[in-house]
Amino acid sequence: MRSYMGYTLLFISSLLLSACGGGSDSPAPVAGTPVPVSTTFTVSVDAPDGMILANQQAFSLIQPAYANAVKELTEQNFAAVWLDDKGKVFDSIEITRLEAKGDGIYELDAGTRARINAVLLVDLDGVPEFTLGESLPTGLFMTPLAAERLAISLESSLTYFALAQRVAADENWGVFNDVFESGAQGAVALALEDINKISIDIRDTLFPKIGVQGLTLKDLMSLTIVQTMTEGRLERFFTEQSATLANILAILNDGYWEISASEGNDGKGIFTDRTSYDGSETTITEFSWDKSGSEDITLSEAFTYLSNSTSFGTEDIRSQVLTNQGWIGLFEYLKVQFSTDRNALLTDAALSTSVEKGITLEAKVYGLSGKKMHDFLSSKDNHYLTRYIPEDTTFSDGSSGFFFTWRPESETYLLCDNTNDQDTCRAYPILTPDAGFTSLEDIKTPLFNVGITIDQVNGFKLSDNIVAEFIGDDFFTVRYWSRIAANEWTIQDTGVWAPTTVSGKPVIRFDIPDIIKQLADDYPYNGRHLFLIEDRGFVNIGEVLLELAEFNFSGFDNDAKAQIFSAATRDNLPPFDECGFGNTSLANEGLFLNAVTECGGDERFTTQTVNDLVDKTLVQINEEGEITAHILRNDNSWDHYRNTLEETGSRNWSLTEEGYMKLVGDTNLEDEFDFWALTNYEYQRNLLAIKVFSQQGQQAQISSLMARAYEPDTLSACIDSDSGWDQATTTPVVKESLTNYNDQVQLCKQVWFGRNPVFTEGLLVGQTGNTSDDKALTFASDSSRYLKLSDNFEGEYFLGSYVDEDGCGFNFDIRWKIEEDGTLYYEAIDGSMNERIQLTDTDGLKLAIKAFNHQSRWQTDEALLYGSDEGEIWSDIVTLIDANLVPNVVPVEPPPPVEEETPPEGETPPAEGETPPAEEEPPAEEEPAGPPGGTILNDGQTCAYLEVPEEPAP
Question: How many CB atoms lie within 10 A of CB 327?
Answer without folding.
Answer: 21
